[in-house]
Amino acid sequence: MGMIGFALGAFAFAGVVWLSCVYVSSFVTKK
Fold first, then answer.
1. Can you give the C-alpha Rg of the chain in angstroms?
2. Has the keyword Transmembrane helix been applied to this entry (predicted)?
3. Sequence-distant (≥ 6) Cβ neighbours of residue 14 within 8 angstroms
4. What is the pLDDT of residue 16?
5. Helix H segments across 1-31?
6. Kind and range of the H or E element at 1?
7. Residues 3-21 pLDDT 10s
8. How do the domains of the chain map onto residue ranges?
9. Per-residue pLDDT at 1
């Protein structure tokens, strides 16, 4: 349970960071 929770947390964190990077890059290129 702990390992699964840690994996899901890390995956969610990576997803948020990736989405933020994509959003910023798209905003910069659009500008």
1. 13
2. yes
3. none
4. 98
5. 2-30
6. none
7. 999 999 999 999 999 999 9
8. 1-31
9. 63
